[in-house]
Structures are given as structure tokens and as C-alpha cells.
Design goal:
- The chain folds into three domains: 75 residues, Alpha Horseshoe (Serine Threonine Protein Phosphatase 5, Tetratricopeptide repeat), CATH 1.25.40; 68 residues, no CATH class; 131 residues, no CATH class.
- Helices cover 75% and strands 0% of the residues.
- Helix 1 packs antiparallel against helix 2, helix 6 packs antiparallel against helix 7 and helix 11 runs antiparallel to helix 12.
- The longest helix has 34 residues.
- The chain is elongated, with a radius of gyration of 27 Å.
- The termini are far apart.
Length: 284
């Protein structure tokens, strides 16, 4: 045993990974255990994941879990390794997508992929530049969250992520609307019409704002329906339910405004706005 340990460590330190695997495999296959030997199983699990040998990966992960039941390491699955072993967003996405290529409906894989992309498209530091392929990533995110939601009935989290993403975009567009309105006011002399260019830009921003709100509507309505169907709503879920109801009221309020000249549509949207405001009030 000592000879195998020394040989394995020597091979590992000299970057002879395949040789180290030979020695460590012999130790693991004999179920060596005790203080200091957990690293043998960890090494094999990580090695075989990187080699994409999922059978060996699962084998040594199971052995590690059997012999070191208190170790969290052996509870990690292939999705955890796909994310944890990569050091940037693009690599994390590619690694999870590789899993999904073989298992398209993997619930955790789809949810994690959606969350990784969400974080990339909604950085906490607003000065951080968005990825150049943000539009492509957004489509991947929506697809991933939609599959995750379909894979777990009564689970609102993917819908909340999607709603929040599009609301965040709408907030940015609304800031552009406000800035443009202020600039228009400065440029336009009292008693005169704004320029055609300014009016066209205003209308384009109004439409873009409405489009992003509309993108948020469906996922928020789906999340709200899931909350409404629950017998008991946990205290931690109530703020999310109220948030969805509040944004839905705002969305229908804007749709009502944009339906000017269409009384039937305005009445319909006003009723929806009222419904969601009342729902917000009812969530205690």
C-alpha cells in the first residue's frame, strides 16, 4: 500500500497523470480508507470527469461516498463538476451544454445553464459590459429555463428568473425613454413640434419598452399561477409572489396606455391591472 501511495503521489507531482491513475485506481479498487486517503478518490473522480469517462466517474464517486459518507465532495453530480471545474462563463456554458447534448431534459443541467447565463446577462455591477453575443445567450437562457420548468411541475423559480431578466431589460429601456424625453424637451422650443427624428426615436423606445414588458408577462403569470395553486405559501415565497403581481399590474397598466383609441382593449387591460393590484394587496 505504501509503495502504491508513494508511486501515485510521485506520478501526480511529476504530471504523469495517467500513471498516477493506475496506482490510485489499484488503491481505490481495494477500498483503501482512513485519514488522508479521501484525496485518492477525489483525484480519480475529477480525472475521469475530465476524461469524459462517466462510468468510471460514477464508479469512484460511489466508492468515495461509501467510504467517506460525511464528505460533500462525493455528493456532487456531473452538472456540479461541469460548472465547478471551469474558470469562466463561456467554458461553464459549453461544459453544461455538453451534458445537455446527451441528456437534453436534464432538469438540473437546464436550470444551472439558465442561471449561469442569467448572471452573465444581469451583472450586479451595472457598469459591466454585456457579452457580445447577449442576444444569442438570451435565447439559450429562455430555452433552458423553459425546459427546467417543464421538467418539474409546480416549480416557479425558472419563470421568476425569466420575468426578472426581461423586467431588468425594461428598466434599462425606460431609463433611455426618460433621458430621451428630457433631451427632446431641451431641444424643442415652446410652441413648436419635436423633430421627426426625435418623435421616431421616442416611438421606437416606447415600443421596445412595451416589448420587454410583454416578454416578462408570460413567465410572471405562470409563476403567479403556481403560487396561487399552492395550499400554503411559505413566508420566503410571499415577496416573490407580490413582486410578480406588482409587475403584472405595471405591465397591464402600460398596455392600457398604449391601447389608446381602442376602448375594448383598454377596458380589458384595466381589468387585468385591477386584478393584479388586488392580488398584491391580498398577499399577507
Amino acid at each position: 500500500t505504501n509503495v502504491l501511495i508513494l508511486a501515485g503521489i510521485t506520478a501526480e507531482n511529476s504530471s504523469s497523470k495517467e500513471e498516477a491513475v493506475i496506482y490510485y485506481s489499484r488503491l481505490a479498487d481495494s477500498k483503501i480508507t482512513g485519514e488522508g486517503f479521501e484525496s485518492v478518490y477525489r483525484y480519480l473522480v475529477s480525472h475521469y470527469y475530465n476524461k469524459k469517462d462517466m462510468a468510471a466517474f460514477e464508479k469512484y464517486k460511489a466508492l468515495g461516498k461509501e467510504l467517506y459518507p460525511k464528505s460533500e465532495y462525493f455528493n456532487y453530480d456531473k452538472v456540479d463538476f461541469a460548472v465547478g471545474l471551469q474558470d469562466n462563463v463561456d467554458k461553464k456554458i459549453a461544459s453544461v451544454e455538453e451534458i445537455l447534448a446527451a441528456d437534453p431534459n436534464n432538469f438540473k443541467g437546464n436550470e444551472v445553464l439558465g442561471e449561469i447565463i442569467y448572471d452573465a446577462l444581469n451583472p450586479k455591477d451595472e457598469t459591466t459590459a454585456l457579452p457580445a453575443n447577449a442576444a444569442e445567450l438570451e435565447k439559450k437562457m429562455v430555452t433552458a429555463f423553459t425546459k427546467a420548468a417543464a421538467g418539474k411541475q409546480g416549480y416557479e423559480i425558472p419563470y421568476l428568473y425569466m420575468g426578472d431578466h426581461f423586467i431588468n431589460k425594461a428598466v434599462k429601456v425606460n431609463k433611455a425613454r426618460e433621458d430621451h424625453a428630457a433631451a427632446m424637451k431641451t431641444r424643442t422650443k415652446p410652441g413648436t413640434m419635436a423633430s421627426k427624428e426625435d418623435i421616431a426615436k421616442r416611438d421606437a423606445l416606447d415600443k421596445e419598452y412595451g416589448d420587454e414588458l410583454e416578454n416578462a408577462r408570460d413567465p410572471y403569470e405562470k409563476a403567479a399561477a403556481i403560487f396561487a395553486a399552492k395550499t400554503t405559501i411559505e413566508p420566503r415565497d410571499k415577496p416573490q409572489y407580490k413582486k410578480a403581481a406588482s409587475y403584472l399590474a405595471d405591465i397591464y397598466s402600460y398596455k392600457k396606455i398604449m391601447a389608446k383609441g381602442k376602448p375594448a382593449d383598454q377596458a380589458k387591460f384595466a381589468a387585468e391591472e385591477k386584478k393584479w393590484n388586488e392580488k398584491w394587496d391580498s398577499i399577507k
